[in-house]
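Figure 2 data, in text form.
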Amino acid sequence: MVSKPKILFVEPFYGGSHKALIDNLTANLNDYQVITLPAKKWHWRARCGALMIHELIPQITTEKILFCSSVLNLAELLGIRPDLHILKKVVYFHENQLIYPVRDVKDRDIQYAYNEITTCLAADIILFNSNFNKVSFLENIKKILKILPDWRPKNLKSKIENKCQVIYFPVAFPRISLCEVLNTTLHIVWPHRWEFDKGPDDFFSVLFKLKENKFPFKVSILGESFTDNPLIFSKAKDILKDEIINFGYVDNKADYYDILASAHVVVSTAKHEFFGVAVLEAVYCGCYPLLPNSLVYPELYPAECLFSDLDDLYIKLRDFCSNPKSAREAMHKMSFNFEKYSSITVVSNIMKIINTLQYFCFIKRKSFTSDVGIVFY
């Protein structure tokens, strides 16, 4: 344990991108402390994470900054642990629950959105991993508040917006040498979590149609699966048994990147995406992206990579099936700036904010503008 920590990282869901972010930020620090809970039972962490973790946080001594993700109900934690109020509080949004897709409006659980809104009110700085994430959050606050029966607070958007900034997620791109894909059959990769919000039904419906119309292809279904997977995966495993090369999560990163490098195309049919590390990694490894013309994708990718609907996706994949080499040829022609998403660039930007906040803690309280565009009062 560090004797005089300056930064306190609190993460109730220490896994996946949440773990990667903290690990990237702390890699070159020596004056920090990390308090975490395992990445299990996300819904319970989002509801009760503050209560679960508050006793693990030691009494404040030399800390100046509290850094957490939006999974933590920051307002609730500050209520339970009032000694944390003196810290400057930074919240990072990997996603937001205000626009989580639900099958029916009555299925929406307002608690998650409510937690995120109160967390923003309690924070000093709010970081979003994309502009789409930030805008979709701010623009839907009013819609969430309309669910309240009465006494709806006003001007919450303006109170929160002034504290917001976009900082892309830091991606640790692999060191690989790209070579020509030798496969004469189109290899499609789908590297997403096996959950409803990633749109697996839509993806497999397109593959079923390709198979039915006798267009040749191979497919790798990657990504993390859970105890209760959507039924479409077992159906697809049976129907596409002759097309499937890989089916399931690949734990070894080197093997995972090798699969990406062997594919021609990466596809997303997500209904809920705010950055998409898996797609970005696949593109870095040489896959041509086919992505919805919605969510975060138009912000990050050229228009020619986007499809308007599933019929459009089918047509694009059908054409690549007929000429697999054209996917890599199109990829080579595409100009893409990976540097702005790299760990070195992004971590540097976040640390500028943290260092500015630490400096602010040592000077008299007055208005000034930092070199990263944040105005403090």
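Caption note: The first helix runs from residue 16 to 26.
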